[in-house]
Amino acid sequence: MMRSELRWTIVVVVLAIAGVVALWPREGRYDLYEPPDSGGPAPQVLEESGARTAPVPDDAALAGLRRQAALGPCPAPSPAAPPATGPLAGITVPCLGAPGTVDLAATLAGRPALLNVWASWCPPCREEMPALAGYAAGPGAVPVIGIDVQDRPADALTLLADLGVRYPSVTDPQGALQRALQTPPILPVSYVLHPDGSVEMVTPPRVFRTPDEVRQAVDRHLAP
User: Fold this and answer.
1) How far is residue 161's CA from residue 95's CA, in Å, rounded to a whole number?
2) What are residue 94's phi and psi, to 5 degrees?
3) How far apart are CA 167 and CA 73, in angstroms?
């Protein structure tokens, strides 16, 4: 009897391990997380041990995909902008939609923005992008900037083109923005950038489903 119970215990453990492994795309670095009482898609969890690096965009190879995606231009510096401050100051990253680099702290200094950390392999990210795009296109919206992480630029541009999402995105090939933002091991995650350069994570982390949900979160974090 004991041998039979032991045999079934081993079988159950093996099947459980196999089920967990089956959920791990991209070299086992990611898992899925379903929070209790979730009313919609859950954020995707990244293991802390996962690498933060990604390929640097190849401008020549990406030219065609950039034309198809037709992203809005990355923010440009204003001569009247105050000096850049806050945790993002001095960090320069590649613009996803066009050749060149951008310093988000400098180009957005003195004004609020919504920063959304995402990746093309993240299903919840794909689900919330239309809501972010709808908010960005609405009246009174603050600039929305995507931060593509741990991703291939070609895959990111292909997804944006397929979804028709046009707000600008940058890439974070060395993980500098992720470290500065102290991003938790989940995707997507959004941050409100305040005019003084400080950043505040939208809490609790969530997957936006409508433009109104985005607007409410931004207004709440920008409220005096």
Assistant:
1) 16
2) -70, 140
3) 8
Report the share of the chain in percent with pLDDT over 70.
76
In angstroms, the CA 23 to CA 1 distance is 34
Across 139-162, b (16+ Cβ under 10 Å) vs e yields eebbbbbbbbbbbbbbebbebbbe
- The boundaries of the domain holding residue 131 are 33-222
The model's confidence at residue 45, banded by pLDDT at 50, 70 and 90, is low
Do 190 and 218 fall within a single domain? yes
Same domain for 9 and 89, yes or no, is no
Q: What is the CATH number of the domain that holds 131?
A: 3.40.30.10
d(CA 111, CA 105): 10
**Angle at 15 (CA atoms; ends 10, 21), nearest 5 degrees:** 130
* pLDDT of the residue at 56: 76
